Structure formats: C-alpha cells, structure tokens
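Re: that chain you flagged

S.,

Sorry for the slow reply, it's been a week of failed gels. I finally had a moment to sit down with the sequence you sent. For the record, here it is as I used it:
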Amino acid sequence: MNDRARLDALALAGDLPGVLLDAKRLAASAPGVHGRRRAGQGEAFWQYRDHRAEDGARLVDWRRSARGDRFFVREQEREAAQTAWFWIDPDAGFNWSSDASRPSKLHRARTIALALAILLSRGGERVGALGNAPRAGARAVDRLAIDLLTPVKDVEAPSNSCVIFLSDFYARVETWRAHLHACAQSGASGALVMIADPAEEDFPFEGRTLFHAPGGRGEVLIGRAETAQAAYAERLATHRRAIRELGAEFRFPAVLHRTDHGASPALAMLIALISERFG
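Prediction finished late last night. Pasting the structure tokens below so you have them in one place:
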C-alpha cells in the first residue's frame, strides 16, 4: 500500500466504529437470514418434517413417529457454508454527500454491506471483500469492515460466487457490461446495490451553479441550472435502465437506495435476493 492509500485508510478507519454500530442497528431491525440451516448432507440435526410418499420407508424416523399417528423424517443441517463477496466503489465521487447531516454514499454502502454480512454470518455463511480472504465466525464481520477500508478497482470474482456490488453505477454502461460479463463467465451472480444522493436524484439546483467533480477532476458552470433538470433526469433514467437491464441479463438484479431514506427496505430486498441465491 502506498503512502497516499495508507493515509486514506487511516482516515476512513476513524469512521469504522460508527459504521459498524450503524450496521449492527440495521441488522437488528431486519428479518433474519437462515443461511446454511437447510436440509443437506450434514451430521447436525436440523428438524423433523412430515413423511412424503416419495421418501419411502427407509427415511422414516421410527422413534419420533412412534409418539403419534404420523410418520416423520429426520433432516440434517447442510454443512457446506457458502460465501458472499462484497465490492464497494472506490471512486472519489462515491465518498460524497450533498448535505453534511446525511451519510455519504460510501458510508451507507458500508453500513448495508456489513449489516448483510452480520446476518449471513449468523446463518453460518462466509463473508469477504473481493481481493481478500473470506471468513466465518464471530470476527468475520469485523475483519470484513477492515478489508473494505482499502478500495480495490478491478478484482476477478471467484468461480460460481455470490458478489454484491455497491456503487452509484455512474461509470459507463460499457464498463459495467465488461465487469458483469466477466462475472457471468466465471459462473458468478449476485446483486447490484445502486446508492444515490437525493441531490443526484432530484437535481434541485437553480440559477448560476458551479458543479465540482469529486477528486478535483474538473468543474462545470451552468448559468441557469434549472434549465438542465429535464435533460439530466432523462439521461439519468436512461442510464439506470441500461444498468438494470445489464443486471437482469447477467443475473445481478438491481436494488436502488437513496441516502435520505432508511436502509431497511434495501437490506430486506437484498436478504430476499441472497437467500434465493443461497437456496
């Protein structure tokens, strides 16, 4: 890690306790993720279920069935944990908020990612940041939080993996097509979490307005900003539609979240998507 990256990581680490606290609060209010607690080829008991005709006599648990007038099958818990990988946009423009009283897109992305990781870890799954080793157990989320402090630009998704991309997705559609195509080639699927600031959504600007690109990459002066609102909205809608279509094509359904809204609905949608992927 070069000096600049090390300084950035240290600065971000100062916000880490707050992000983890927000993630724990968010996870506490969310529906659970059952994770690997499903029937499979394990040794640990999971549940009894009613016997079905296709099970045959061999699967009947006679000891349990003897307590009543129904036949039961004893199911074991599947042992093989799966891994959810997280990638958070490292672009300077993602670490931005139009209002100091609201979290930045980056802060909200980390909060949602870690909340989902908490729920998955409780369900027995592994979690990891792309470019780092996945982990399971009590400390897995803390290690993930640290790994997410160091952004990675381009990392290949592991074969047949579940990857959650968190970004504003303002990069060119062709760029995201290349990323998702590479994922699909390796058998990966997952979800796209599109995080937006309300100013980016509503374009509430009027009069003479100077727009600065984050990271010192230039600026644009518009004499009457309100005259650009309709064209901006149309262009944003077209871009979003293209990203959603890409996601659907490559098995990465998209979830849109605004930082001025609560994160619980977005997390609930992610839970449903990832639970289906791990099912």
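What I noticed first: Residues 3-35+81-278 form a domain with the Rossmann fold fold (CATH 3.40.50).

Talk soon,
D.
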